[in-house]
């Protein structure tokens, strides 16, 4: 059975934020050649697929998610030849490669928009969302009005993100065809899949109705972009038509996949599998967006598995370049426990680069912040989770010989790949051992998931296949005892001193500690 599992079900995915992964030429920006130099790390860790976040030509107003040419690598990351060499190098190591795909919006410097803005009769006049008057109350992701006046065309255009990221009009057939050609451009060059940026936003209400206020909005606590509910500006049923068309594009090739970025509720998320004709992996952010407590995660995980359509494959994420890092949110022990969940819940795990060594959000000076969200308030800046990868205790953590584009976090001397590789009890070796366990144990890879009754602040479940059974106990609160009549041996504990211990009856489990127990 395991042998026939599709590659994207068995692989562990690893997200690379290319600007911060490895610089090969000393200019302070990570690049594609740098990634190639670091493939040993990924292979050693047991990674099966690498997702390169985005590295296309871009003015970089929004970290490269404002693309001015979808078919060119931005010079700061290298050349198209470097991209081909990287695809090849990844494949030669038996790994797969996913590229970013940003279909919702282009940069305002993209030739399509530059033409569109010139006049209502331009060749690309209808490629973006234009109107004479602001039609509604929609806001952008900074919380400001989403309709931007354009002097040249004497009209407003819509942008879900910053004004330099105009939204494409996906109801226009020419837009669809052009963007499907973009997909084919990279699929033809051997890319194994695409991570579709903000998939749920592609289509907006045809009638452009006002979004209703978010009744739970707390102006003191919540960021300003949460004040409306995107009922009409996002997650429209017609997105599924687009998604199914995208899927037809990838299905014309062997074995290629779509990963969807989706910040929607669980029931909505399931629609994006679209009966097997949508995304293979609609991102499941439940472990990112929910506070971690035993009862809450038990219920969220049960709901997620419970609502999963037949034949749909689950996935799990602990972090990415938009979120606070898991070790910052949950602490060192929590991040270790998170790793146990990530690799044993069942489904495809996604690692965000640096989380495997427990990198934390860096404490950055205001002047260093680059993210447009910083303009709102420094606390919203996503840069702290995007600092350079900490490879060693050398200059700039081994990331660059020059001056890194964003400062390296101060803890790099103690927290780096080189040190953790040498320490069998490190976070890095915990990741590696859990990945290896998942790869060799069918119970963990494809076995049944059996949740146990909630107990205090514990999350506990069994993974079973044939006679092999594992009990996973995660304590999401303070030190406590877990009562069970199951018996076994601890295969991997977040506190590695407990590996190999016998487990029976009452289990003492430390604060934010997790145990993977092979049952007798
Ligand atoms: C996605 C990206 C994020 C970006 C946004 C707009 O959410 O992950 O980094 O700002 O899309 O493209």
How much is the average pLDDT? Answer: 97
Number of domains: 2
Small-molecule binders: alpha-D-glucopyranose
CATH-assigned homologous superfamily of the largest domain: Glycosidases
**Relative helix content:** 25-40%
Instruction: Describe the global form.
Output: globular
Strand order of the largest sheet: 11-10-9-5-2-1-13-12
Strand composition percent: 15-25%
End-to-end span in angstroms?
Answer: 23 Å
Please tell me the CATH architecture of the largest domain by its name. Alpha-Beta Barrel
In DSSP terms (H or I, runs of 4 or more residues), the helix count works out at: 14
For this structure, what is the CATH class of the largest domain? Answer: Alpha Beta
Low-confidence stretches: none
Structural class: alpha/beta
**How would a textbook summarize the main sheet?**
8 strands, parallel
Q: What is the C-alpha radius of gyration, as a whole number of Å?
A: 23 Å
Tally of extended strands?
A: 19
CATH level 3 topology of the largest domain: TIM Barrel
Structure, described:
With 520 residues, this protein is α/β, with parallel strands linked by helices. It folds into two domains: 2-105 and 174-203 and 258-435, TIM Barrel (Alpha-Beta Barrel), CATH 3.20.20; 448-519, Golgi alpha-mannosidase II (Immunoglobulin-like, Sandwich). It contains 14 helices and 19 strands. Helix 6 packs parallel to helix 7 (239-251) and helix 11 runs parallel beside helix 13 (427-440). It is globular. The relative contact order is 0.10. The mean pLDDT is 97. Bound molecules: alpha-D-glucopyranose (GLC). Alpha-D-glucopyranose (GLC) binds next to loops.
């Amino acid at each position: 059975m395991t042998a026939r599992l599709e590659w994207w079900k068995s692989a562990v995915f690893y997200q690379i934020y290319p600007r911060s992964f490895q610089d090969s030429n000393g200019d302070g920006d990570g690049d594609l050649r740098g990634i190639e130099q670091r493939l040993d790390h990924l292979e050693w860790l047991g990674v099966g697929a690498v997702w390169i976040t985005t590295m296309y030509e871009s003015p970089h107003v929004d970290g490269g998610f404002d693309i001015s040419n979808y078919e060119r690598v931005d010079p700061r990351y290298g050349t198209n030849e470097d991209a081909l060499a990287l695809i090849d190098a990844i494949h030669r190591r038996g790994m797969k490669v996913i590229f970013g795909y940003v279909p919702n919006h282009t940069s305002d410097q993209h030739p399509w928009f530059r033409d569109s803005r010139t006049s209502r009769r331009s060749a690309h006049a209808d490629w973006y969302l234009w109107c004479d008057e602001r039609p509604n109350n929609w806001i952008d992701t900074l919380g400001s009005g989403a309709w931007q006046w354009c002097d040249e065309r004497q009209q407003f255009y819509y942008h879900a993100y910053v004004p330099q990221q105009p939204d494409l009009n996906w109801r226009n057939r020419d837009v669809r065809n052009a963007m499907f050609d973009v997909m084919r451009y990279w699929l033809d060059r051997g890319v194994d899949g695409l991570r579709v940026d903000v998939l749920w936003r592609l289509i907006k209400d045809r009638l452009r109705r006002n979004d209703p206020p978010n009744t739970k909005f707390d102006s003191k606590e919540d960021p300003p972009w949460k004040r409306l509910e995107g009922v009409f500006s996002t997650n429209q049923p017609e997105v599924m038509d687009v998604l199914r068309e995208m899927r037809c594009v990838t299905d014309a090739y062997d074995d290629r996949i779509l990963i969807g970025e989706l910040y929607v509720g669980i029931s909505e998320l399931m629609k994006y599998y679209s009966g097997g004709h949508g995304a293979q992996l609609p991102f499941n952010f439940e472990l990112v967006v929910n506070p971690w407590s035993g009862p809450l995660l038990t219920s969220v995980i049960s709901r997620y598995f419970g609502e999963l359509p037949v034949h749909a494959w689950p996935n799990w994420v602990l972090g990415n370049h938009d979120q606070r890092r898991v070790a910052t949110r949950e602490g060192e022990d929590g991040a270790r426990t998170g790793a146990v969940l990530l690799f044993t819940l069942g489904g495809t795990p996604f690692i965000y680069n640096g989380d495997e060594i427990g990198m934390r959000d860096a404490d950055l000076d205001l002047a260093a912040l680059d993210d447009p969200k910083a303009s709102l308030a420094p606390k919203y800046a996503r840069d702290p989770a995007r600092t350079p990868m900490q490879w060693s205790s050398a200059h700039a953590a081994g990331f660059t010989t020059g001056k890194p584009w964003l400062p390296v976090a101060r803890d790099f001397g103690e927290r780096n790949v080189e040190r953790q590789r040498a320490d069998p009890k490190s976070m890095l070796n915990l990741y590696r051992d859990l990945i290896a366990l998942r790869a060799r144990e069918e119970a963990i890879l494809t076995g049944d998931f059996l949740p146990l009754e909630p107990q205090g602040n514990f999350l506990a479940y069994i993974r079973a296949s044939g006679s092999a059974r594992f009990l996973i106990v995660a304590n999401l609160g303070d030190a406590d005892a877990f009562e069970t009549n199951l018996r076994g041996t601890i295969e991997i504990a977040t506190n590695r001193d407990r590996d190999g211990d016998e487990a029976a009856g009452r289990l003492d489990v430390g604060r934010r500690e997790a145990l993977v127990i092979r049952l007798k």
